[in-house]
## 1
Amino acid sequence: MGAALEAGLRKRLTDKWYVGNVRSVGLFWGIEFVQSKESKTPFEPSRQVAMGVHKLGMQEPHMISLYPGTGSVEGVRGDFVLLAPPYTITLEEVDLLVQKAVNTINAYFKKDFGVLFEKDGSAKFTP
């Protein structure tokens, strides 16, 4: 199931300007958020990006807990969320997890950063 989760997350997130990295060990996945994909510049801590993604995920229609984390850059800056599904997850549940996670992350950046998306999911502009 880890391979299916990897394929879904990487396919739908790695091209986003605000995703710096998608990495894992088995079913334990981290998604890093950045201001610039090229420079991997993290957001300022005051933006609380990871917590914003988490809080949005806990609301309708998303209903998913994306565990927020910070301080991955020099112990102070850096935002990421973790996904850690149960080892008993099915392929259908992996698909739902990917859909909910991606939709939540995209909705957060659209809401808080005003990013407009093309039909293919790419940003029309970057900050």
## 2
Amino acid sequence: MRQHLLLLIGIAALTACSSTEPTEKSNPNTMTVDFAWKPSHLCSGISPKVEIGNFPAGTSYFAVRLRDRDNPSSALGGGEVANTGSGVLPEGSLKSYTGPCTQGSEPHYYYFEAAAIDHDGKSIAYGKSQPQPLP
């Protein structure tokens, strides 16, 4: 019984280490990330078009997340999108995206961050957009 428990703990630790959550620490190679807001992207599940540049050969897909610079704990989602070679993630392609809504009297600034993931599931590059306020 104890061996089974140790095996399960080991598997859980390995799974946690193989996350495709984009982070600057996972790979400092810099990609460019750009996007533009439209009213349809706010308070909705329709993500903006995201353009990723300078991604390395061998990128299988992109793991992308929307972040609130002014409220880092907020969960705004994102998604994983296959690399077609263009670096363009079409509008609506981030399936777990939750568009931000106006919050209080102070403007919030949002940015997308992305990790390039290879065929083995390893993060091979990272980038993030410039923070932008809601329109």
